[in-house]
## 1
Amino acid sequence: MHGLPPVDFRAELNDEQYAAVTSPRGPALVLAGAGSGKTRTLTYRVAWLLHQGAKPWDILLLTFTNKSAKEMLERVEDLTGIPRGQFWGGTFHSIGQRIIRRNAVDAGRNPDFTILDQKESEQLFSEIIKQSDGAFIKDKTNPKAPVILDAYSHSRNTLRPMADVFAERLDWMKGGPEKLVGFCNAYEAAKKERNVCDFDDLLVLWLNLLENNPTILEHYRRRFQHLLVDEFQDTNRLQSRIIDLLASEHQIMAVGDDAQCIYTWRGADWENIVAFPQRHPGTQIHSIDTNYRSTPEILAFANEILAHRPKVEGFDRRLKAVRHRGIPPTVFTVGDTSQQAKLVGRKILQLHNEGHALADIHILYRAHYQSLELQMELNALGIPFVITSGHKFFDLIHVKDVLAHLRVIHNPQDYVALSRLLCLLPKIGPVAADKITKAAQAVAASEGRGMIRALRHPSVLQKVTEVAKDDFNDLTITLEDMLEGIENAKKKPVAVAPSSDLFTAAREKHEEKISRTPAETVRVCIEGWYGSHIKTLFPDWKDREQDLTGLIGFAAKFEDLGDLVAQVVLLNGESSDKKPEPDQDMLRLTTIHQSKGLEFPVVFLLGVADGLLPLTRAIDEGDVEEERRLFYVACTRAENILYLFAPRFAISGEGYRPLDPCRFLEEMSPDCFELADYAHRRL
Ligand code: ATP
Ligand code: MG
């Protein structure tokens, strides 16, 4: 393009990157390990194309997050002076939305259609079920709208017949999948009629548009002379089909790393990468093995993780280091997860005193609940932090629901918490909840019963709508069980056996505690009504169950239920409501999934133990390879320092649970890391 400032492509790229950036028109696949400059290659490719005369509007840049598209186009703007607003860049969903809006009528909508968020889609789906089959909702053994919708979404994203996915995922449902298929068809009609799209429609309608309208397809094929796709390993079938259609003239460059595929649970299919050359004949494959991000020590460690993959199904490669030597990754073995939190706190302060900014340190973990004890410790130490992966633990709906149980048990006059619980029951809203509460208050006053026991009185039950009666019954039984546990524990004095070994003593103390309140109270709650309720309510109930199990461990730190409830309020107040100052130096906490594509000077990885990473669920299901890739993604985020923390015990639903050493670490050569044993040290 005329008037662009010169860019010294040769000097700013290595040979492999340069070859990819300047490759001739045609399909190209850049397969490269973590931190080898894939994203950088795509950025320079955009600049290169502009230098070759392409216009910004000829280019379509698809990335995993809008943030990464923004960053890449800002870099292009720096390199070429062309404002990023002139490009089409973003996630598949954001681009799909633009294209559907421009061709709304052909896509089956009016141009002013609105997009439903997840909650709204679920509400609409519930409405549809209610309208088509009232009895279905009433039968509480049937899956709820979010669960059905999640399976439907999976079928759409993987382009599989919905009946197959229903049969596979909801095989426990009575009466076969036909009914569910009917609901989905009615849901489709309702969205069309109301002129709305759900999230998946942004891809599905886009694909339909291309498949059913040859002129539109032709228009976009011509329009997007150059397709660039980052993080290609995590695309699903639906996305890959859209790309294949648009890139019929093979003007595509896809960039990815099969070893970093971490979204198969959402339908990502790394076959998309493996089969790319067959689908796009004449594909030039570029591989880049030089890693610019990490020290040689960190890379040797990362390479070792992959070296022990049982069968290399993808493209095998090892990362080559160019940076100067640094310090080896260190594995800190610790007694339990609470000792882990203490040691992490101490190491952060140590690094901070040595001159590292807090913002350079990122704490990664496999699942949200694994950061709970650390959040407490950071509050205690006064270390400011932000959680960059979604909600704070105590803001999660299911955690709040369980806390509402605890609040009611602790203070039966906490009507806000009671109302929250009652509103979880079918057909009960705040007004009905209020009636039930008033009836229980009357019984409690006239019969001298406690509020919890009053809930089970026939005159209170009368106020409960018929459809909610079973749930109400189960809920009140659970509350009573929780209360009884506390009353019994108060009667029993607790003796902690003296022990000479620090480690054994700590374990015994924890076991003793867990058999008492409030950890036991939390366990009774989770095993009661709410535990079964979440299975019908949330498609990701397994993850949520795990969070709740983590809550038992958290509760084990407290001797008194009141302290636990108060601490949660304080923890939330200190960490979630306080808006960070823009310039404040803060530590970052995030899940491994959310750290994808990013890089940080210092990485602490928590919970490196079987049961935490890999997660118990993956071990039970016999497929730990995605967990290995997560381990790889986590470690390859680190530029200079990588600390791993390996607890030997976790406090969980089963009490003080021994953890086996992380199987991935066990396989690796001990030469590639240092071991620091803190398991028997007092911190
Ligand atoms: P990931 O697999 O994590 O997505 P990636 O392959 O996309 O990583 P980039 O994020 O593009 O890698 O690059 C990693 C780091 O290396 C960045 O800081 C980038 O600027 C730097 N880098 C890449 N190539 C070069 C190069 N030729 N010269 C100097 N620095 C480079
Ligand atoms: Mg990248």
Note: The first helix runs from residue 9 to 12.
## 2
Amino acid sequence: MAEGRFLINGTQMSAASLAPGLYIVATPIGNLADITLRALHTLAAADAVAAEDTRHTGRLLQHYGIRAPLVRYDEHGAAGQRPKLLARLAGGEAVALVSDAGTPLISDPGFRLVREARDSGHAVHAIPGPSALTAALSVCGLPTDRVLFEGFLPAKAGARARQLNAIAQVQATLALYVAPHRLGDTLAAMAEVLGPREAAVARELTKRFETVERGTLPELAARFAAEPTKGEIVILVAPPSAPALPDVETLDALLRSALAGQSVSAAAGEVAKATGADRRTLYKRALALKDGA
Ligand code: SAM
């Protein structure tokens, strides 16, 4: 196992050797300072760094004075490259996996490698850090309690509309990656299928020209139809508004009719399912109605 070195602002640091295994290392999404100490230690001490684009990752390693053997692991060659990486792991090496930016496996290669490494009994460690997904969620001001990450939508209009229709009712903030030349069309398709939901377009996060633009989907679609866009982009869309609950009189009427011929619990369950109202509250009300309240 290699012992490595890296530089921070000209100061040399040594990286302790790593236990054998696969290390999934997040790297910056724009600002090179967004790298963790643990990522630097891991990259400096790894026996090999598997990268989507070795020249791109080479620049990051050079910035931190890291001399690690770079090998390729990209979407197109993965099937041929994977056995070689698994053989290194079987030989007791520490292999780091990085992507061009952010966290590997998040709309980036690595899933099959991690799966096969685990299936073969190798240790797999997370070296977490930046991702455009979490960066966008953290700054856009849309709900983050439930998120549906769709990655990139299909490029073809028909397939894109079908996918949007399939997720239109999901009660979660929707997160997407999009290429700049598809931004206008994608926002227009989203406005058509999802309606006037609140949304955000986060561009060039952590970089010099970082922007976050908020508005409804039709507003953003109009804004970006007119403006040619550059840079890297995440779109977030707020969840659909929850359907309004029926008023108390209507709930009572539904409960009375549901109570005819079934238990209080079953009646409360039936009305909760039909209306979206809280089951426990309905149960208490159904008990009271049964007792003649
Ligand atoms: N694995 C990466 C991650 O964890 O974010 C994502 C890789 S995916 C191939 C690249 C896409 O991520 C870009 O097309 C863009 O949609 C988004 N992205 C990457 N960097 C970004 C940034 N600085 N600002 C906004 N979006 C970014």
Note: Residues 248-290 form one domain.
